[in-house]
């Protein structure tokens, strides 16, 4: 197979290289933006679409058929990012997405969508503060164009992987709903209780034998058992190294899960200077800002010791009183989230301080029951983690297929 070099890489000799504007109809002039107040008065069954997908549902539509929606502003245009998506049926589009349709007999909607999500479109983006893919630049996007039947076959293969990813997404959503329901049940009703009392502090019913305590009451009775991360000036960007003592940052803390990728490191020497903020496996790390606020996770035993950043706090639980994983689940529940939001400061980005985190109230069952509750919920978390890894694997397969099929490295049989 002979290949020719073009600005976006090598393609087979029998493929064309065209500008997007040459192979699509542009329907941008039909778009009508609606603000939130206008949409609130128009609730209905039809999707209202923007740069990155469906934003709302309203009682009217302006498009009927199959179209490609490509982000004009507020989108993501890097390689393998979802800059474009397909809409079918009746829907409405605002002014933040180009509305395109492949020219009949020349190009296929689904193939063009996959090509646009495969290419790096950032060279076509204009504007310094808020990037925009204006219509002039959009028309000039260079794309590879195989014969039409080959386009359809490539799109069919990639859509098969997309359907598999959608099924995993559905399984993740079902499991998340199950977990949410179980958390509500187990963290307020417990296991096997018949007698309940109303807790004024938590504004809910809990088993009669449960206590209500502050987070500071379950910390080890030692100095530095409940501490802030070091000042931001104590951990400068230039002090991070390729390997050493791992530093836990906001993006490593997810609800009930510690995210290990993208860990950063500091030297042993730097760590010793900040030893007061040392974090060990089994500690509970809580975020002080973010959305949602006050997320928590238990630190895993991947390393012997860690450091935390300024926007996190570390709680070392007294294991004779409380189970760290139970504490994690309670902090990530609505019971704590409601309290945290009430105490948080700030308008654009909510923030809660260590002194306020220490005073947050939690229900405290007997230790054995805490462990049973944590075990049930951790089983659900393990299932979620398996599904998420399965999705990551499928997405990796899809990227590999896109790289092979959309450049013609691997040809499909027609």
Provide structural commentary.
The protein is of the alpha+beta class and 414 residues long. The protein folds into 3 domains: 3-145, Adenine-n6-DNA-methyltransferase TaqI, Chain A, domain 2; 147-192 and 366-414, Helix Hairpins; 211-364, DNA methylase specificity domains (Adenine-n6-DNA-methyltransferase TaqI, Chain A, domain 2, Alpha-Beta Complex), CATH 3.90.220.20. The chain has helices at residues 36-40, 109-118, 135-139, 148-189, 268-273, 324-331, 334-343, 354-358, 367-405; strands at residues 3-6, 9-12, 16-19, 24-26, 43-50, 53-58, 63-71, 84-93, 97-102, 142-145, 196-199, 204-207, 211-214, 226-228, 245-248, 253-254, 257-258, 264-266, 278-279, 284-287, 296-298, 306-308, 312-315, 361-364. It is elongated and about 75 Å long. The two termini are 16 Å apart. The model has no long low-confidence stretch (mean pLDDT 93).
